[in-house]
Design a protein that fits this description.
The chain is α+β, with helices and mostly antiparallel strands and 532 residues long. The protein has helices at residues 2-8, 45-51, 58-66, 70-79, 85-89, 95-102, 107-110, 120-123, 125-133, 146-150, 201-204, 234-237, 239-246, 248-254, 327-333, 338-344, 352-362, 397-403, 426-429, 447-452, 472-477, and strands at residues 35-37, 172-177, 179-180, 192-196, 210-212, 221-226, 256-257, 266-268, 274-275, 279-294, 300-301, 304-305, 308-320, 381-388, 415-419, 430-435, 466-469, 525-531. The protein is built from 21 helices and 18 strands.
Length: 532
């Protein structure tokens, strides 16, 4: 980082030489190359009109130069005093090249495979010339392209990586590099945690999904910058300069290249992977004058008539935000609200494990050992069949009966129905079925289907053949047994426990595994277990 800042700091400001111009709007009185200075460094319709208001009405003057559509042309005139990001990287401006670079592609990242000996100075020659002669005396725009707005793809012209109206709510951008095109060691400073791919689908070209990066040690060198919400602040006006310092300057000066798989290399922080740290770039600038230069009556800019060009005289210096490895997060805290800082704390985190676990849960991805819906302890219970999030194919009638044999303590194993989607009905969530040891279920009847899909009264009467309990302890102690049960739904497809309840009917929480007869209250997450 320090090497980069020293490199950018080598450029000295050259004073802008201007010529006088007649203060009236007879076009013949304007000399090509002549100029007039604004009374402020703020270029706008009001300030331009004021500067032209000596000897003739400013609006009349603009009408002479631009016609009736002068207001829109002055907006374009004031924009011309900033260097476009695209003009730094390529001549002519090439949106697709810049976009691919920010996503980790192009010769700047790969090198010229057809000419492996070709130096970075050749591949990035345009960048090198700009860094050595202009970067300290210009205000630079964020990536914005006439070809994008003119095509109708996006009226703003913004590159998706830095779309100020769609994806930069935290006013922070970051680059994370994983390698060096100069074959040198890259000072990796961050653990890369995870990525919500939907946030950067225009870079990954994948609509949605998630990635996790469980790689021991530091994975990337991340560096970024933040800007104030105040549009007149230096950090806001010069955010394009900080982007140059964080991106192409890092590549050209230090050789840092390559994106984290699935992620853009550089983008607003909402699109980037969650990381544990990032260095930070700051900027300062002293603006001294805005000068309007007459270029003649046949000049066009981006297809629009522009006899005047605005030139900004400024001195720009670059620095680091702090010495600690998490200086970007600290810098952001100086120009943000508490609510914004809370969101930033989910982008630059202290611990990958917490962040990754949350993202995986949000995406409905869970590991076998950390299921969102954990059923019974399988060291103590045998899973018989399950639905939804606890899905498991049924083990079959024979296997079920083999489990339902009298135990050495003289009782039948308990059958446990767990319903994880019944939290709004605590009675239905945990139900234990204890069969009377003197009342074996007849071999001529389907014992497993009694629970799954057809709860009948045949050899199955509460208080005589079995009892139901709300807790495992009650079932063992045969205390607090339920007193109400009904059976034999006419459909023949309503399983355990139909409307049984502790003291009265508790309907709607039965199971059914019959085709097209599943109960919405239980089909999403329920299972049956037999006590071991």
């Amino acid at each position: 980082m320090n090497r980069l800042i020293r490199s950018l700091g080598l450029v000295a400001l050259t004073a802008l030489q201007v010529q006088g111009v007649a203060n009236n709007c007879t076009l013949s009185s304007w000399t090509v190359g002549g100029s007039i200075s604004l009374d402020t460094t703020n270029c706008s319709l009001a300030t331009v009109t004021a500067a032209l208001n000596v000897g003739a009405g400013g609006v009349d003057c603009l009408t002479q130069l631009y016609g009736a559509n002068y207001a829109a042309n002055v907006t374009q005139l004031c924009a011309s005093m900033e260097d476009t990001f695209g003009s730094i990287t390529n001549t002519p401006i090439d949106y697709h090249n810049d976009k691919n670079y920010m996503d980790g592609g192009t010769l700047l990242n790969y090198g010229n495979q057809a000419k492996p000996d070709e130096s970075l100075g050749v591949v990035g020659g345009n960048i090198g010339r700009y860094l050595s002669s202009r970067v300290n005396k210009a205000r630079i725009t964020v990536p914005k392209y006439f070809s994008v707005s003119d095509s109708g793809y996006d009226a703003t012209g913004y590159m998706s990586n830095f779309h100020l109206t769609k994806s930069c709510a935290l006013r922070t951008a970051m680059c994370c590099f994983v390698g060096s095109i100069k074959n040198s060691t890259i000072p990796k400073n961050a653990d890369v945690c995870n990525l919500d791919i939907s946030k950067s689908k225009n870079s990954s070209h994948v609509r949605r999904g998630a990635a996790r990066y469980d790689i021991p040690g530091k994975d990337a060198y991340c560096v970024g910058f933040s800007w104030s919400a105040d549009p007149n602040s230096i950090s806001n006006k010069y955010k394009g300069n900080m982007l140059v310092a964080a991106s192409v300057a890092q590549t050209y000066v230090s050789g840092y290249v390559g994106n984290i798989p699935g992620a853009p290399m550089c983008a607003c922080i909402e699109q980037m992977p969650t990381v544990t740290a990032s260095d930070c770039i700051s900027v300062d600038a002293t603006e001294t004058a805005v000068t309007l230069v007459f270029k003649g009556t046949n000049t066009t800019t981006n297809g629009g008539y522009s006899p005047l060009v605005a030139q900004l005289s400024t001195t720009v210096t670059y620095g680091t935000c702090g010495a600690n490895s998490n200086s970007l997060k600290s810098q952001f805290a100086t120009m943000s609200t508490a609510a914004e800082q809370a969101v930033m704390a989910t982008r630059i985190v202290n611990d990958c494990n917490v962040s990754t676990a949350q993202l995986m849960a949000d995406q409905n991805f869970v590991t076998a050992s950390t299921k969102k819906y954990q059923g019974a302890d399988l060291s103590k219970w045998t899973l018989v069949v399950g639905q939804g999030n606890l899905y498991s194919p049924m083990i079959g009638e024979d296997a079920f009966r083999s489990l339902m044999q009298l135990r050495p303590d003289g009782r039948y194993p308990l059958v446990y129905r767990y319903c994880c989607h019944c939290p709004w009905n605590s009675v239905a969530k945990n139900i234990y079925y204890r069969r009377n040891a003197t009342r074996p279920y007849p071999l001529t009847q389907d014992f497993l289907n009694l629970f799954m899909s057809n709860w009948t009264s045949a050899s199955n009467m509460i208080g005589l053949d079995f009892n139901l309990y709300s807790t495992y302890a009650d079932a063992l102690n045969q205390s607090n047994a339920w007193t109400f049960c009904n059976y034999d739904d006419p459909s023949g497809t309503v399983g355990f426990p139909r409307d049984c309840g502790p003291t009265g009917s508790n309907g709607g929480y039965w199971t059914s595994y019959a085709v097209n007869q599943q109960n919405d209250n239980t089909r999403l997450c329920s299972a049956y277990y037999v006590e071991k």
